[in-house]
Design a protein that fits this description.
CATH class of one domain: Alpha Beta
Structural class: alpha/beta
Largest sheet: 7 strands, mixed
Number of helices: 5
Distance between the termini: 38 Å
Shape: globular
Radius of gyration: 17 Å
Number of strands: 10
CATH architecture of one domain: 3-Layer(aba) Sandwich
CATH superfamily of one domain: Vaccinia Virus protein VP39
Helix content: 10-25%
CATH topology of one domain: Rossmann fold
Order of helices and strands: HEHEHEEEEHEEHEE
Length: 240
């Protein structure tokens, strides 16, 4: 099968802006029904990824759904969505190294389309993506973090992408940038999952976003929890 091209809406990147990807641990194509979905060499982290993906099951993805996966990482949730019957999954992942894994995992899955961009709350612009230096490559963030290096990525408006693809289901995991998104355009979305990041003032912001979503007619099927000690939590909401 021919290799699927990653959709790139603007060829703005210069070679020096992008650190070289390290393909030494490329994943083979996976599905959630396989017994091992762990990245090679990342045993403990792979187990954490599997647990994280399973928490999205209450979204209730149906056959024929269009799914929006914002912060796709290596594609585990996208593959789960296809296995549950999604007709199309739109993945958004800006981190260069993650794109290598995401492409390898999804290139032979016709229902998945990958865009190498981030989604944010403002106008289209090039911004800095701050890279987590540890093993968790899912923790890169548009929110500036001390002690991190950065690469430049294209950021498109979340609300415009949502209106363009008109998803039935949306999953958002963007490491603190969830609080800048305009969520007033969710009227056609049946189910949404948000990973809330809870560092400092973000604890207040998480409560604001939770109240906002609940005011739009969703019911909460997985309540986000703030213990004062946890650094993140999941909220899952449905209309049915």
């Amino acid at each position: 099968m021919a290799k699927k091209k990653i959709v790139s809406p603007r060829q703005f990147r210069r070679e020096q802006d992008i650190p070289p990807a390290q393909p030494s641990e490329l994943l083979t194509p996976i599905t959630m029904t396989q017994s091992n979905i762990k990245p090679a060499g990342w045993e403990k982290y792979g187990e954490e990824v599997a647990q994280e993906v399973s928490c999205y099951l209450p979204l209730g993805i149906r056959k024929g759904d269009v799914v929006m996966d914002v912060g796709s990482h290596h594609g585990h949730f996208a593959l789960l969505a296809v296995e549950q019957g999604a007709a199309q999954v739109y993945c958004y992942e800006p981190a260069p190294e993650n794109l290598v894994y995401l492409d390898r995992n999804t290139r032979d899955v016709s229902e998945i389309e990958v865009s190498d961009v981030a989604l944010g709350g403002g106008n289209p612009e090039v911004r800095e993506l701050w890279l987590n230096p540890g093993r968790n490559t899912g923790a890169h963030s548009l929110v500036k973090r001390r002690g991190r290096s950065a690469v430049k990525v294209l950021v498109l408006p979340f609300h415009e992408e949502l209106e363009k693809i008109n998803p039935d289901v949306a999953k958002i995991d963007i490491e603190g940038a969830e609080y800048e998104l305009h969520l007033d355009c969710l009227e056609k979305v049946r189910a949404i999952a948000i990973e809330y990041h809870l560092v400092g003032f973000q604890r207040i912001e998480a409560k604001r976003v939770h109240r906002k979503i609940m005011s739009m007619g969703f019911r909460c099927v997985r309540e986000p929890r703030d213990t004062g000690q946890n650094w993140h939590s999941y909220g899952i909401y449905r209309r049915d």
